[in-house]
Amino acid sequence: MKAFTQVTGVVAPMDRANVDTDLIIPKQFLKSIKRTGFGPNLFDELRYLDEGQPGQDCSQRPLNPDFPLNFPRYKGASILLARKNFGCGSSREHAPWALDDYGFRAVIAPSFADIFFNNCFKNGLLPIVVDEDTVEQLFQEMYADEGYQLTIDLEKQQIIKPDGETIAFEVDEFRKHCLLNGLDDIGLTLEDADDIRAYEAKRREQAPWLFDAVK
Amino acid sequence: MGHPENKKQTLYDKLWQDHLVKSRDDGTALIYIDRHLIHEVTSPQAFEGLRLAGRKPWRTDSVVATPDHNVPSDAAERAGGIEGIQDEVSRIQVKTLDENCKDFGIVEFGINDPGQGIVHVIGPETGVTLPGMTVVCGDSHTSTHGALGALAHGIGTSEVEHVMATQCLIQKKMKNMLVRVDGELGPGVTAKDVVLAIIGKIGTAGGTGYAIEFGGSAIRSMSMEGRMTICNMAIEGGARAGMVAVDQITLDYVKGKPYAPKGEQWDRAVENWSRLHSDDGAHFDAIVELKAEEIEPQVSWGTSPEMVVPVNAVVPNPADESDATKKAGIERALEYMGLSAGQKITDINLDRVFIGSCTNSRIEDLRAAAEVAKGHKKADSVKQVLVVPGSQSVKAQAEKEGLDKVFIEAGFEWREPSCSMCLAMNADKLGAGEHCASTSNRNFEGRQGYGGRTHLVSPSMAAAAAIAGHFVDVREFGGVK
């Protein structure tokens, strides 16, 4: 996994609550058997004026001029500012894959849906929870200042504003450790293989039917 | 969670405890997974990951696969098997699942196997998923299996790979929520209406961070299939896991299923499962209560499952909402749905009707829809009514009961088991601007087709709407038990 230490970048808005993963990456793109290449279809139904198809060359499609990610001022954005319950709905990991492939490294919102939140950490994408008032303030500052940038320092668990003011955020110790070092958590879990085997042996005694093969 | 001095446990506490391999100093835990269901959409990248890292599945016999999302519901197309799938990208994905299962030695109920069906339908109906299990699948509606008294939830593809490689998930314990529905449901009011009413009350983020146990006399008296419908939509209330305590209804349901324990094993299992309920006085971090008598048939009007009202209500007015973000959400939803504030729900005309999905494609759902449809014809203004059974086994049972004929005589289309128009990954989809009465679980923008407008309802409400051409209160329609 890609490590995340510090990121400085342009902030772009997704100014609505309950953004679902269907909206982040619509179903037709889930037919891919790869992990990459979803960036051009991020927010497909909002971003373009036509219906997208898998494998299509998106550079020829009509852009929705009213969708913020299409505004020149948000070009190259790497931090997405969002509202409550971001990433709700389907468990599709294609949602963080699409955000990552587009170039986002972090999403800031007052709250996230559980599965999406979890999926982000597996892909070097940092979801940051800050309170609603702070998010509102960031929206105002971003709208007022073209080219508004933030720095995110994961080690210090801080968002650093252009004026130097900092906003602290929480992150689980384990997830932080994995992100900072770009660690594969399967490798870490396999270090506990003996514990897993011991559990399995005990469980097999208690509930042998759980180990019956399906044929 | 819960008070440390309180030794009384919730159902979730017990299931968690039973599967705890290891607690780590950093607050995370390794949780053992008993059953891993996979389908074609969220597994290919996980298999690819295993190959790249040179890893093998920890316990292949814990994994069961079936293709459901992409497979055609059209009988002629379906008859051609994988090679017959016309959409090339879909065909490659289904074929990839097939190949991966062969390569890794995983049991798969293939595209036209008698065991095939929507993963969340075939798990309980075969006994592949059982009480007391931890069940995961790269699909958010895995919460369905919680109806058995299991800890079941959706995971992402990286976690699919993690579970295959380690048989475990890295988790933090969730909080406990009890949703209690007491009383008796009125005629024509179903499990679907109950869960939509719950989501309407708690909101789509209400259950975030919680495992929800559904209890109360209305849930206790509900069939297993009804409980599955409720647990299925726990995720629409924000909770990864929903569950119901094990009782006699559970045991009667599980007994005799092909992969359920037999003989002496059954007796041991029953003894083990009899403790799978919350202890009296166990601590819940949140309790939500609904009165069954107050729940009416529900219809979603907007683009989030929380945007739901009783069938005799009107579309809400954004002017009545004080919260700015919510108000903007209502305005946007009205525009997308082509509805106006104050419009009667029963004045919404339907273009298509979909009866199916992991929420409502089981035999009881089809019986309820057929009961309403019997002797009627779909309205001419309704272009299509799809009835898509959840599994080959549900399909066979329905045909044995003659339900397929009832549907066909009513002008409905009887299809092959698949996820179908719930998420429109196969050819079944809405056209832009079309309104659909759907028994599925999500009414998000574009979910059932680009520009499509979804209204979530119960199977009997969907059948009644198909006949009337617009929403009607099924209680006044007839054919309702």
UniProtKB/TrEMBL annotation, chain A:
Classification via Pfam families: Aconitase_C
Assigned keywords, A-Z: Amino-acid biosynthesis, Branched-chain amino acid biosynthesis, Leucine biosynthesis, Lyase
EC class: lyase
E.C. no: 4.2.1.33
Superkingdom as given in the UniProt entry: Bacteria
Record bears the keyword Transmembrane helix: no
Pathway info: Amino-acid biosynthesis; L-leucine biosynthesis; L-leucine from 3-methyl-2-oxobutanoate: step 2/4
Domain Aconitase A/isopropylmalate dehydratase small subunit swivel, chain residue ranges per copy: 1-131
One Gene Ontology molecular-function label: 3-isopropylmalate dehydratase activity
Reactions accelerated catalytically: (2R,3S)-3-isopropylmalate = (2S)-2-isopropylmalate
PANTHER family to which the protein is assigned, alphabetical: 3-ISOPROPYLMALATE DEHYDRATASE SMALL SUBUNIT (PTHR43345:SF5), 3-ISOPROPYLMALATE DEHYDRATASE SMALL SUBUNIT 2-RELATED-RELATED (PTHR43345)
Subunit annotation: Heterodimer of LeuC and LeuD.
Homology family: Belongs to the LeuD family. LeuD type 1 subfamily.
Function, as annotated: Catalyzes the isomerization between 2-isopropylmalate and 3-isopropylmalate, via the formation of 2-isopropylmaleate.
The protein's name: 3-isopropylmalate dehydratase small subunit
UniProtKB/TrEMBL annotation, chain B:
Keywords associated with the record: 4Fe-4S, Amino-acid biosynthesis, Branched-chain amino acid biosynthesis, Iron, Iron-sulfur, Leucine biosynthesis, Lyase, Metal-binding
Family annotation (Gene3D superfamilies): Aconitase, domain 3 (3.30.499.10)
Domain Aconitase/3-isopropylmalate dehydratase large subunit alpha/beta/alpha: residue ranges: 13-469
Keyword Amino-acid biosynthesis: yes
Cofactor note: Binds 1 [4Fe-4S] cluster per subunit.
Cofactor(s) the protein requires to work: [4Fe-4S] cluster
InterPro entries: 3-IsopropMal_deHydase_lsu, Acnase/IPM_dHydase_lsu_aba_1/3, Acoase/IPM_deHydtase_lsu_aba, Aconitase_4Fe-4S_BS, Aconitase_4Fe-4S_dom, IPM_dehydratase_rel_enz, IPMI_cat
GO molecular function, one term: 3-isopropylmalate dehydratase activity
UniProt: [4Fe-4S] cluster binding residues: C358, C419, C422
EC class (word): lyase
Listed EC numbers: 4.2.1.33
Protein family (similarity comment): Belongs to the aconitase/IPM isomerase family. LeuC type 1 subfamily.
Function per UniProt: Catalyzes the isomerization between 2-isopropylmalate and 3-isopropylmalate, via the formation of 2-isopropylmaleate.
Protein name: 3-isopropylmalate dehydratase large subunit
Organism: Microbulbifer harenosus
Gene designation per UniProt: leuC
